[in-house]
Fold this sequence. Notes:
two-stranded antiparallel sheet, mainly alpha, 16 helices
Amino acid sequence: xxxxxxxxxxxYESNHERVARPNSWPALPVSGTVWTATxxxxxxxxGSGVLSLxxxxxxxxxxxxxxxxxxxxxxxxxxxxxxxxxxxxxxxxFGNRNRSYTDAVRAFLGGGKVKLCxxxxxxxxxxxxxxxxxxxxxxxxxxxxxxxFHEHGHSDPCRTNSNPYMIIFGVVQIFLSxxxxxxxxxxxxxxxxxxxxxxxxxxLALGIVQVVENKRFKGNLxxxxxxxxxxxxxxxxxxxxxGDIAFAYSFSIILVEIQDTIKSPPPSEAAVMKKASMLxxxxxxxxxxxxGTMGYGAFGDEAPGNLLTGFGFYNPFWxxxxxNAAIVVHLVGAYQVFCQPLFSFVEKWxxxxxxxxxxxxxxxxxxxxKLSLFRLLWRSVFVVVTTIISMLLPFFNxxxxxxxxxxxxxxxxxxxxxxxxxxxxxxxxxxxxMCLQLLSLACCVISVAAAIGSIAGILTDLKVYRPFRxxx
Length: 472
C-alpha cells in the first residue's frame, strides 16, 4: 500500500449523513477540533446537574461532598480516555472507525452486550430529554415567580403551572430537531456552552455574596442534621446525592459521536478527544466545586434542590431572571446534543430495514435545506412524548438522581472498561485486570444505591403531587 493510499487527510460525512445522504450528493468535510469537541462536551456536562450540587453536598457534608465530587471527576475522565481509544478498531490512527457508542461495543465485545448497551444508552438519552424538559420549565417558571415576588412580596405564594412552559420548550425542540446531525449544530453547542458558564457564574456569585452577608459558612462536616430530617430520610437523601453528582458527570453516552466530528489525523481523533475531555472536565469540576460548596456555605441544611429556582435567593431579581434565561438557552442546545445520537440510530435502523421505501429516504429540497418526511414525523413524535412524560413527573432532583444512577455505571464505567480490556487483550486475573474490575464493581454498587434513593424520593413526591395543576 502506498503512503497516499494509507492516509486520510480529510474525512467526509457525519454519522447521520452517511445514512440519509443519497450517493449523488456531495459529501461535506468533517472539520471538528479540540475546541469544538470541548464545546460539545461542556454543553453536555454543565447542564441542569450543576443546579443540584449544593443540595447534594448538603446531604454529604463538607468532607465527603467535595471528595465524592473529585472522585467522580477522576473516574469520568479515566473511563472517557479508555473510550476514546475505542473509536478505531485495529490501528489507532487508520483503523476502522466506530462511529457510535454502540458500534464500538459491537466491534470489541459483540454478542448480547451490543443489544444491552444500545437499550441502556438510548433509554438514558430518552430520560435525559425528559430531565432537560423538566429543568427548562422550572427555570421559566422561576422567572415568572421571581417577578411576582418582586411585585407582590415574598408572602405571596405566586403559584404557577409549569406545563405551558414545557409545551413551549417542546415546540422549540420540534423545530431544532430537524437539524440533521452533530456537524450542523456546532454553533448551538458553543452558544449553549457560553450560557452554561453564564448561569453557573451567576449562581456562584450569588452564593459568595450570601456567604459574605452571613459572615460565615453554614453547614457542617457530616451534612444535614438528623432532626431537620428523619434518619431514614437522611439515608435516602445521601444515596440520591450520589445520583445527582453522577448525573452531573454523565456524558460518555455521546462521547464517540462527538469524536466522530473531529477531522482526520494527524493528530489522531483519540488524542484530540482526550485533550478535549481533560479540558472540559477540569473546567466543569472547578465550576461544580465552587457552585456546590458556595451554595452549601450560603444556605447550609436549607440548600435548595435547584440553586437558582429554589428561591434561596430572591434578589437581585433581574439577575436571577438572566441566570434562569441562560439555563433555558443552554438546555435547548443540550437537548439536541444528547438526542442527536438517538435520532441518528432510529433513522439508520429504518433505512437499513426498509432500503426501498421512499418514505424513509426521500428528502424535499427547501432552498439549501433538505426536509425528510420521516425525520419530521419521528423526531416530532419523540419530542411530544418526552414533553407529556415531563408534565406527568416534574420532579427535578429525583429524576436527575435516577438518571445519574441508572446511566453512570454501565455507560461511563462498565462498557469502556470491558472494551479497553478486550482491545488491549489484558489477561484475566492480572493486576491491571483486577484493578479495572474493582473500579467497575465499586461504581456498580454506588449506582444501585443511588437508584434506590432516587426511587424512594419519587415515591415520596407522588404522594402529594397533583398532575397538570400548579405545584410551584
